[in-house]
Each structure stands twice: as C-alpha cells, then as structure tokens.
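Illustration: ARM repeats containing protein.
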Amino acid sequence: MGNQCCAGRDNAYKRKAQENEYGNRGSFRHMLSFGAVGDDVVRFDRAYDNNDIAEFVRLCSSTCEIEKLEERMHPWAADPETIGALAATQLAIFSSREQEPHMKDEIREAGGIEALVKLLASKELDRKHAAVVALSFLSVDNTENCIAMYNAGALPYLIQGMKGDIEGMRAACAQTARNIYVLDIKYRREFMKNGGVTQLVRFLDINPEATNVYTQLEAIYHLEDLIGDENEEIPEFVQAVKAAGAIPKLKKLQDCKDQDVADAANLLLVRLSD
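Result:
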C-alpha cells in the first residue's frame, strides 16, 4: 500500500522537516579544537574534510567527549557532547540537503539507518536527539530508507519519542513514523500495536498555553494517512482511531479559530463516520 498523500501536504511535511535543520554548522571545528585529541577526534576531522559518510556511520558509536558549544545548534535537540552524537548530527546535515538526495541513499548503503536506530535507544539525550533529527530527514521522499527503518525496529522507539516532553521531538518522531507506516498495512498494524494511534489522538488536544495549532493539524493529517488512502478507508484503523477517543476531540477542533484546523477536523470526522 503506497503513500497516496496529496502534493500540497507533502510540501508541508517537507517544510516541517526543514525546521529541524542544524544551524551553527561551522562550529564543528571549534568543538574539536579543545581538550585531548583522541583517535576518534582525528577520524572525525578526516571524515569531515573528505565528506566520508561511511566513516561518520562508524563513528556513531563513539563515546569520545567533545567541547560544548556556547550557542545551541538546533531549535530543540540537545547539542552533541560526544563524537558519536556529532557524527549523527553530520549525517542529519547530509540528509537535509535537498539538492543532494543521493546522500540519503549513501547513508543507508553504509549502514547508517541501523546505526541511527541504535542511537534511538540511548539514554544520552544528545545521541537520541541527533538520531531523531537524522532519521526524520532520511525518511522524506525515500521509500527504501523508510523500509530500512522499519526493518531495523525504529517504530517502537519513535512512538516512545512521541510521548516525550519536547514538542519538536514529538513532532519529528510522529512525522517519521508516518512516513514509514503509510508504505504498508503491516507497518500500520505495527504502529497501532505499539500505541502509536493513542499518541496521535492525544496530539489533538490543544494546550491552553500553546501559541499555534500546528501539532493538531499535523496529527489530523497523520491520522488521515493512517486510516486509508484517497479511495477508501480501512475499517480496522478507523475503529482504532475512534476507540482512542478521536471523535470528541475532533468535534472540539471544528470550532477552532484556525480555519485549516477546523476544515481538516471536519474532513476527518466525515471519513470516520459510519
């Protein structure tokens, strides 16, 4: 079952992914210019000069500590504190280059998907966050990467990330999970089995302190993509979304001041109706 999402929504997904890009990229040299120079620092420096993707993948497991930055590199992700997290950050930067989509394939072919999924299980936030950002870019417009993520066991970790305290991380995990599950009904069932539907439905609630309703709009889109395609709904997923309590939440969103959210809620309610 393929992705039947409209081009307009795909463009919105791409714009959302761009919000996860790393800034302050020229600071990598600064981070490596202090403290003892270990073998992994030398390896990273050489890989940086040569754009050596395979070496960056190998370095993802490094625990060699690096200098901390004074300014944040990313809107929400923790700054790298080890060579491993820094290598994952570099893979995220490579995969964010829209004019060089071949880099996404090269990262997969070098074993990067498996290495990054391993980092998702890390207890260190810098490693986990860097992996989430990298995988979010790698999942955009690349079916083979999404299949590799599923095969590497990414979905349970992404669903766990959807429960986190950081809105940006929750959104990135949800977006990446969506890019995976739209590809196959088996993937949707795995997402549902691991509690993904419940998390998406929770995103429909508006925080009184929120300054926008992007989270709710994206959640509606993700739920639409889950329950079927442009031609038909799949009953088991329709029932799962309804059982998770989506109907009353969507009815509240019908009165949302944001017209895009209100319209999207109306449309999803129609699709969920018996």
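Reading the tokens back as a structure: The chain has two domains: 1-193, 195-274.
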